[in-house]
Amino acid sequence: MMVTVLWLSLGCVQQPEADVTPSPRIVSLGGPVTELVYALGRGDTLVGRDTSSMFPEEALRLPDVGYHRQLSAEGVLSLAPTLVLATAHAGPPEAVDQLRAAGVTVLLLPEDATAEGSRARTIAAGEALDRKQAAQALVEQLDAGLLGLSPLTKAPKVMFVYARGGVALEVAGQETAADEMIRLVGAQNAISGYTGYKPLTPEAAIAAAPDVLLMTARGLESAGGEATIWENPALMATPAGHSRRLIVMDDLLLLGFGPRLPEAARQLTSALAETQTSP
Amino acid sequence: MTSLTALSPPDRAQLFGLVALCVVLTLAVSLGAVSISPGQLLFAPLSRLGLTELSALTPAQEAVLWAIRLPRALLAVGVGGALGLAGALMQGLTRNPLADPGLLGVSSGAALGGAAATVLGGAWSQIGLPVAAIFGGLLVWAVVMAAARRDGAAPISTLLLCGVAVSALASSGTGLLLFIASDEQLRSLTFWTLGSLSGASWSRACLVLGALAVGLGLTARAARSLNALLLGEAEAAQLGVPVEALKLGLTVLVAVLVGLSVAFSGFIGFIGLVVPPLARLFVGADQRRVLPMSVVLGAGLLTVADLVARTCVAPAELPVGVLTALLGGPFFLYRLRAASPEV
Amino acid sequence: MLTVSNLGVSVRGRALVRGVSFGLAPGELLAVCGPNGAGKSTLLKLISGERRPTTGEIVLFDRALTAWRPRELAQRRAVVPQTSPCDFPFCAWEVVMLGRTPHPSSARDRDIALDALDAVGASHLAERLLPQLSGGERQRVALARAFAQLHGVQGPGLLLLDEPTAALDLQHQESVLSLLRRRCDERGDAVLIILHDLNLAGAWADRALLMMEGQTLADAPPEEAFTPTLIHRAYGVTVRTLRHPDTGRALLVPARADTRTQTLTPPPKP
Predict the structure, then answer these.
(1) Is A120 inside any structural domain?
(2) Within 10 Å of residue B32's Cβ, how many Cβ atoms?
(3) Contacts with A113 (C-beta within 8 Å, 6 or more apart), sequence order
(4) What would the pLDDT profile of B174-200 be if each residue is shown by its tens digit?
(5) Between these two residues, A214 and A164, which has the higher pLDDT value?
């Protein structure tokens, strides 16, 4: 009994924290956001990331706070962050409010999946991390990279295919990240006439008549691999299916619109050019 | 003060349940991803009132304790209790010891509301979700009641069938929405479906606890009638119970309790279904005991499940609905084997 | 106490009960008999208020049935249904205590319940769980519940019973009916009881209502109601009348041929 009281009172007599400006401790939420932090040279200040932050490798060694749309405020707070960098996708809104109420600065970067959005994100992140010059350099890199893209001889029709839950195949219409990427490199989205993702049907595929199929690495895996793709009757009937033209790229690289955007654009362009030249 | 042994087993069980709930609640407030020492906890209320500088909490710890953990623990108590009460009422209403509170379609309606808010809501999707869920649940309930009503009476069997039919309709509506949902929306919906208390706030906790208190109060007064209803609708009517009015009141209460729970914490299954029979194992069939015991057990179970959910993989979180089944299932099976054959 | 005039109920054009009229005075035990589908249970449900009639009137305790508030009526009228499936772990005494629902809550409720169980000879079942009881035991508990419901009522009460003896053995059949008889004689209660067993009705009832296809064939003391002609009309079976060696009352047995299983073919219509 006495020991308990003693122990408890020891816990009570705690020195207040010394008033010293702490070194920044940043939690970044969202794959592109984490990439940006590293690209701006502030990777060493990161103390946590979310599940979708898979690049660079060092990020994977950071504590994972879970899916950025379903945060646990206390979990984030246990990392004692001074700043949380995220996009408007972060949630639930109550958790974000709780973080702010706890005295943590939560900065929401613009979230649009476009080249312009990428520029805005980079600038905003540069401001937040006090790396304005590095941010400027990244933006210039992006502009140069996009300008320097070798034009494609003929805008090929590209169809982005996504496997929802590994079962139903869907294709990307307008106003999707995939659509933006396709148009950014000067190609044409084979699917037009609707926005968002729609299920793949043989009629739609034949009408679209894509020259090339585009998929992400994880998407292809969950769809069952390349063999399964070519067995799909809807896809078999397309020009892409006849010539077996499929481009596969890393998810975050292709759709993240993060600092690696110029690299992604270059990769996509050269892959497309290859498909045009090969028989 | 009567000695413990002088109390009948059901009363003892109720007392223990209440004590256990208090212990669990204390644990829930004490433990979490952010460490707060017991001493700090002890003096926290005084510190809050500015009465002492001892064991001052850092701003982060303060925020965690008062703005995150306490409302979250209270929300767990509120939602767990509400689901337990709704389940007990539903089982009494349908005279089926294994009826689920979602039987009248309220859960499907809430799911439809939530899906609609997520997929169609655009900018309002996150804020609008709880409201849409409550609205969806009540709307479906109203449709079911109207469909089952004939000559001013809605027999339970008809209510159930209508509930099944309207549930199916609501589910197909939800399915359609899922079909057109984007990947992000789908992931959000999935997480919401799995249930989480991370969206806890004081207003939500107070709202649910308030509804629970009102519900308990109302049903306590109607306890004798509720018991009579267990014999059958005709029998209860012959005992002078206003059966139709009672059914109306009960179904509204169930709809509100389930709707609020789903709205604020997604789908947390298992509690409404299994907590009442568990309560009956401890205290018998008298609704005067079963209802409060279901509240206590449901609240305790959810609080424990949430505690585990947010500490075992910190700083991330497990979906709490998965844990309620994992924790409650084996305990229920064990108690079932140890007790008499009927639940 | 109970007056039924021209009572009728139809469902989708088919009359389940048609033009039934009779009265029941305090202290009377009225047996309602008839073949399956004669409308006996429907009649009981009409009187208890479970079903609404399409024609006719029911007057209970000098007030129209529709004018009664359910709770008030429940304080003077108890119903014992045929079966009461209940899967909840109630103790027998808790179920009997539910009979006190229409009355204000009182500390004596438990004692009243135990007394009622005692009266039907089921005291030993008091702590047993309802789902574990046999059909006959449940019937006796239901009867005890009805007794508990009418406990302390001012003036005579009305008991409506739907085949309470169906699942009971010989001993309990006799004891239940003798209990009911005593209530009629000592407390002046009126009892309306559906009975399959004509001889049971004959032994204990003051009057019998013989029903067929929704209508009454007879409303008279059993001796006059259960004539072989009427029985034959109702059941299509020929019966012989014997005399009970102790009471001298009529006993009815189906006419049989020599061999054990053959019954006499019905005589040609007169």
Answers:
(1) yes
(2) 23
(3) A176, A177, A180, A255, A257
(4) 888 887 777 777 777 777 777 888 888
(5) A214
pLDDT at site B5: 65
User: Shortest CB distance from A74 goes to which of B34, B42, B127?
Assistant: B34
Q: Is A160 in the B-facing interface, judged by CB distances under 8 Å?
A: no
For residue A91, what are the domain limits?
23-146
d(CA C225, CA B5): 62
Same domain, A119 and A196: no
User: Domain total for chain A?
Assistant: 2
The domain ranges of chain B are 58-337
The verdict on residue A190 lying in a domain is yes
pLDDT, averaged across chain A? 84
Burial degree of C60 (CB within 10 A; 0-12, 13-18, 19+): buried
Q: Are residues A257 and A213 in the same domain?
A: yes
Q: Which of C170, C166, C122 is nearest to C146 (CA)?
A: C122
> Of chain A residues 209-268, which have a CB less than 8 A from chain B?
none
Q: Which of B8, B151, B239, B342 to mutate to test the interface with C (most CBs of C within 10 A)?
A: B239
Q: What are the CA-CA distances from residue B121 to residues A108, B117, B124, B172 (Å)?
A: 20, 4, 5, 19
Of B40, B180, B198, nearest to A92 by CB-CB distance is: B198
Distance CA C227, CA C231 (A): 6
Question: What's the one-letter identity of residue A73?
Answer: A
The answer to whether C94 contacts B225, with C-beta atoms less than 8 Å apart, is no
Which residues in B lie closer than 8 A to residue A91 (C-beta atoms)? 126, 188
Instruction: Mark the ranges of chain B whose per-residue pLDDT is less than 70.
Output: 1-6, 47-48, 50-56, 126, 151-153, 339-343
A107 and A182 inside one domain = no
Taking CA B11 as the corner, what is the angle to CA B5 and CA B17, rounded to the nearest 5 degrees? 105
**Alpha carbon of B50: minimum distance to chain A alpha carbons (Å):** 15
Q: What is the pTM of this model?
A: 0.82
Q: What is the pLDDT of residue A5?
A: 47
B225, B234, B340 member nearest C129 (Cβ) = B340
Q: Which of A93, A120, A146 is the last residue of a domain?
A: A146
Within chain B, residue ranges assigned H as helices are: 9-30, 38-48, 59-62, 70-94, 106-120, 125-148, 156-180, 183-194, 202-221, 223-229, 233-238, 243-265, 271-283, 287-311, 320-338
Give yes or no for residue A16 having a pLDDT over 70. no
The identity of residue A61, as a single letter, is R
What average pLDDT does this structure show over A235-246?
87
pLDDT in tens, C22-68: 999 999 999 999 998 888 999 999 999 888 889 999 999 888 888 99
Average pLDDT, chain C: 88
CA distances from A140 to A42, A123, B74 (A): 19, 11, 52
* Cα–Cα distance measured from residue B91 to residue B99, given in angstroms and rounded to the nearest whole number: 5
d(CA B270, CA B268): 7
Beta strands in chain B (DSSP E): none
Q: What is the pLDDT of residues A173-195, one digit of tens each?
A: 888 888 999 988 888 898 888 88
* Chain B, nearest residue to A11 by Cα: B39
CATH number reported for the structural domain that contains residue A32 in this entry: 3.40.50.1980
CATH 1.20.1300.10 fits B58-337, yes or no: no
**In a domain? residue A14:** no
For chain A, what is the total number of helices (H) and then of strands (E)?
14, 10
- Which of B55, B201, B204 is the closest to A14 by Cβ? B55
